[in-house]
Design brief:
Keywords: Cell inner membrane, Cell membrane, Electron transport, Heme, Hydrogen ion transport, Ion transport, Iron, Membrane, Metal-binding, Oxidoreductase, Repeat, Respiratory chain, Transmembrane, Transmembrane helix, Transport. InterPro entries: CcoP_N, CcoP_N_sf, Cyt_c-like_dom, Cyt_c-like_dom_sf, Cyt_C_IC, Cyt_c_oxidase_cbb3_su3, Cytochrome_c_Oxidase_Subunit. 55% of the residues lie in helices and 8% in strands. By secondary structure, it is mainly α. It folds into 4 domains: 84 residues; 36 residues, no CATH class; 85 residues, Cytochrome c-like domain (Cytochrome Bc1 Complex, Chain D, domain 2, Orthogonal Bundle), CATH 1.10.760.10; 90 residues, Cytochrome Bc1 Complex, Chain D, domain 2 (Orthogonal Bundle), CATH 1.10.760.10. The strands form 3 sheets. It has a two-stranded antiparallel ribbon. The chain has a two-stranded parallel sheet with strand order 3-4. A hairpin with a 2-residue loop joins strand 1 and strand 2.
């Protein structure tokens, strides 16, 4: 925060507290010209106004809140760039990466700083760390049949994965459905765990420069025919020879390749849409899908449990 805004906020904050104090003092003075307890000669619907002072309990409470406000602003951050006498802060500010966050946490601990986020994370690790550690010692297939373990895994999924795959794990355009048996990189426990730990990056190049518009139409027709779709047979036959360039990833039979994350083109399950228009767009411009790595964020123990949950989703089919 710049010095201008720091001063501006401080003046507004302290000025408001001072204004409340002065207003209270002004209200405590009898400026009506009428003795306290006497009739103010105002009457409405049988109700007569009396010149009574502010209740003492109310006045004391108001003074207490003013004093408390000043003490709070002195101890905790709230006045612009002033950090407070206790050195407390809600979190390490201005960090832009996980590495910077961890470095800031380490530095705060070394300097004895009171960082609320770090304190809560430490408490959570002390409380829940042994639970995840115990789950990590069990086999994934065993955890996949444990209702209590799956409840914990579901919470991890909702907190970290639902933004892309949906709360029901059925995915959306560009994000895989995790409840079926169509896997880009394989659906056994070890493959799922590797995906979660290391992340994935799937690149489908654009072919417009190589094939041209006519060639794209031919390959689209052949690609759609692989899943049993009705297409122009002449276009499909012409696209079959062009598809040879695609077999390096998708295989000669079009059934894909787990090692490269190349999807199966024969099951009529499409990550970016299976309409002729969508497939044409994919072949023309290509696709670039990224699954982030979660090892440094969640740690191996939590990922082990999350693997069991994701694995269980496709086993229910």
């Amino acid at each position: 925060m710049s010095s201008f805004w720091s001063i501006f906020i401080s003046v507004i904050t302290l000025g408001t507290i001072l204004g409340c104090f002065l207003l209270l003092r002004w209200c405590l003075k009898n400026m009506t010209g009428v003795e306290e307890g006497d009739d103010m000669h105002h009457e409405f619907d049988g109700i007569v106004e009396i010149n009574n002072p502010l209740p003492r309990w109310w006045t004391i409470m108001f003074y207490v809140t003013i004093v408390w406000g000043i003490i709070y602003l002195a101890l905790y951050p709230g006045l612009g760039n002033f950090a407070g006498l206790l050195g407390w802060k809600s979190s390490n500010q201005d960090v832009q990466s996980l590495e910077e966050s961890r470095a800031a946490t380490k530095q705060a601990l070394e300097n004895g700083e009171l960082v609320e986020y770090d304190r809560q994370m430490q408490q959570a690790e002390e409380r829940f760390g042994p639970i995840f550690e115990a789950y990590a010692k069990r086999d994934v297939t065993d955890l996949a049949n444990d209702p209590e373990a799956l409840k914990v895994g579901q919470r991890l999924f909702l907190q970290n994965c639902a933004q892309c795959h949906g709360s029901d794990a059925r995915g959306m355009r560009g994000f895989p459905n995790l409840t079926d048996d169509a896997w880009l990189y394989g659906g056994n426990p070890e493959q799922i765990r590797t995906t979660l730990l290391q992340g994935r990056q799937g690149v489908m190049p654009g072919w417009i420069d190589s094939y041209g518009e006519k060639g794209i139409k031919e390959v689209v027709a052949y690609t759609l025919s692989l899943s049993g779709r009705k297409v122009d047979p002449e276009l499909a036959e012409a696209g079959k020879s062009r598809f040879a360039a695609c077999t390096a990833c998708h295989g000669q039979d079009g059934k894909g390749n787990y090692a490269m994350g190349a999807p199966n083109l024969t099951d009529n399950i499409w990550l970016y849409g299976g309409s002729e228009k969508a497939v044409t767009e994919t072949l023309t411009h290509g696709r670039n899908g990224v699954m982030p790595a979660w090892e440094k964020i969640l740690g191996e123990d939590k990922i082990h449990l999350l693997t069991a949950y994701v694995y269980s989703l496709s086993q229910e089919q």
